[in-house]
Design a protein that fits this description.
single chain, mainly alpha, two-stranded antiparallel sheet
């Protein structure tokens, strides 16, 4: 049977999957903060800043993403057109961090949900949901090959610049963010803020969730978005 490229309606489907992925990712990151067991490495910086200085989590994440975008734009200054494409991440950052704020307001703290939810078992359950949503959201949005979120974009740019594998560079960036978050917490709060078992689980398991999602749903999703050939 002949392979044909699927194009009809692919633009709308592609953007639909992309936006849905961002929503699911924002939900996952928000649930991660609600579990109270430690947040994912990259957002640990913005989370620690929001707790230590009593600032809005979404706004602090926007500041963090803005720094990531500026770093990428600076690296790309000598490559025609690439710096401009990096700056496209600013609008994405605004939209994404507003999602974080909406979910932060809509999802109550576990303490408000009663002793069962706020106990260790309840928190672990929320953490599992958080990691699942984070992995699925990241897989969907990244697969659409549109504008990457600033954290993933930074990892890719650094990997390309230094000639290091993306996976290894992701580990390096995660480790750097965790160390900075620990320093911030110890200096300004006298204890770690946002770093815990949930952070370790995010490092280990989110990538596995992404891989599993791609294995089960990846091909069908790419075909629906018009990014992979379909069979007649």
């Amino acid at each position: 049977m002949e392979m044909t490229e699927k194009t009809t309606g692919s633009g709308a489907a592609r953007w639909g999957f992309y936006l849905m992925g961002l929503l699911i990712l924002a939900m996952g990151l928000t649930l991660n903060t609600k579990a109270g067991l430690g947040v994912s490495p990259i957002i640990s910086l913005s989370y620690a800043a929001s707790v230590i200085w009593n600032r809005n989590f979404g706004d602090m994440t926007f500041v963090l993403y803005g720094i990531f975008v500026l770093i990428q734009a600076a690296i790309h200054l000598r490559e025609k057109g690439k710096a401009g494409r990096s700056l496209l991440m600013f609008p994405l950052s605004i939209v994404f961090t507003r999602f974080l704020n909406v979910f932060s307001v809509c999802i109550p703290s576990l303490e408000e949900c009663g002793p069962a939810a706020s106990g260790l078992l309840g928190r672990m359950g929320v953490l599992v949901l958080a990691l699942t949503f984070t992995g699925v959201g990241a897989a969907m949005s990244l697969s659409m090959r549109l504008v990457p979120n600033p954290g993933d974009g930074l990892v890719q740019v650094l990997a390309d610049t230094f000639g290091i594998g993306t996976g290894l560079m992701k580990n390096c960036v995660d480790a750097f963010c965790i160390v900075l978050s620990l320093i911030m917490g110890l200096l300004f709060a006298g204890k770690p803020v946002g770093i815990g078992i949930g952070t370790v689980c995010a490092v280990v398991l989110v990538g596995r969730v992404i891989a599993l999602f791609h294995h089960i749903f990846g091909k069908a999703m790419l075909q629906a978005a018009g990014l992979e050939s379909g069979r007649n």
